[in-house]
């Protein structure tokens, strides 16, 4: 039979656990009041331009931004004729070595993507929000070229996911 002290310890531990979970800061992201967010408005996402040397990076970024917006509450995407138009361009893509082995071989690379994104009212063309966003992702160096390319592509997709989350935040925050 558990003692009174054991019951109190379990009760305190349970209450503390509930407080930690309740106060951990996790919450569902919803559009904030007053932002440029598409709450109640239709949003058209144009295919981004590519000003970098990396082929198809603009398609990857556009697709991932659309996926991010579709999964968020309050976003109504349309193929054309939206009240708001989100457009942009990939300005640059690059990689650089960030770590080396003991024998001075590249161990890890860092991919960097910079994009410019604009949200406009379709009727007037008025710019609601415009920004330049940059994100990075490290990926391992590989001896096998195909594996190396796959690692780099995975890093690009992760960068695009980060940029898409930033776009969503900018679309829904108070300015």
Radius of gyration, in Å, reads 22 Å
Q: State the domain count.
A: 1
Mass-distribution shape: flat
Please give the largest β-sheet: 6 strands, mixed
What is the mean predicted local confidence, pLDDT? 84
Order of helices and strands: HEEHEEEEH
User: Which range best describes the helical content: under 10%, 10-25%, 25-40%, 40-55%, 55-70% or over 70%?
Assistant: 25-40%
Reading off the top of the CATH hierarchy, the class is best stated as Alpha Beta
Number of E-type strands: 6
Can you tell me about this structure?
- The chain is an alpha/beta fold and 175 residues long.
- Helix 2 (57-70) crosses helix 3 (145-172).
- The protein is flat, with a radius of gyration of 22 Å.
- Helices cover 35% and strands 32% of the residues.
- It is built from three helices and six strands, in the order H-E-E-H-E-E-E-E-H.
- It has helices at residues 4-22, 57-70, 145-172, and strands at 42-45, 49-50, 76-78, 84-100, 106-121, 127-140.
- Strands 1, 2, 3, 4, 5 and 6 form a six-stranded mixed β-sheet that branches.
- Strand 5 and strand 6 form a beta hairpin.
- It has one domain (32-172): Lipoprotein like domain (Double Stranded RNA Binding Domain, 2-Layer Sandwich).
Defining key terms:
single chain, 175 residues, alpha/beta, Double Stranded RNA Binding Domain, 6-stranded mixed sheet, 3 helices, 6 strands, 32% strand, flat
């Amino acid at each position: 039979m558990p003692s009174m002290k054991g019951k109190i310890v379990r009760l305190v531990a349970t209450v503390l656990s509930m407080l930690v979970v309740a106060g951990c800061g996790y919450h569902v992201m919803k559009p904030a009041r007053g932002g440029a967010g598409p709450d109640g408005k239709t949003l058209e996402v144009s295919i981004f331009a590519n000003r970098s040397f990396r082929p198809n990076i603009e398609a990857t970024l556009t697709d991932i931004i659309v996926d991010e917006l579709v999964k968020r509450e309050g976003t109504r995407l349309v193929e054309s004729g939206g009240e708001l138009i989100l457009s942009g361009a990939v300005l640059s893509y690059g990689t650089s070595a960030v770590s080396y082995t003991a024998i001075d071989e590249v161990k890890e690379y860092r991919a960097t993507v910079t994009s410019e994104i604009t949200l406009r009212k379709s009727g007037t063309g008025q710019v609601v929000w415009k920004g330049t966003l940059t994100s990075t992702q490290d990926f391992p160096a590989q001896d096998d070229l195909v594996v190396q390319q796959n690692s780099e592509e995975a890093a690009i997709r992760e960068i695009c996911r980060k940029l898409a989350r930033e776009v969503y935040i900018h679309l829904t925050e108070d300015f």
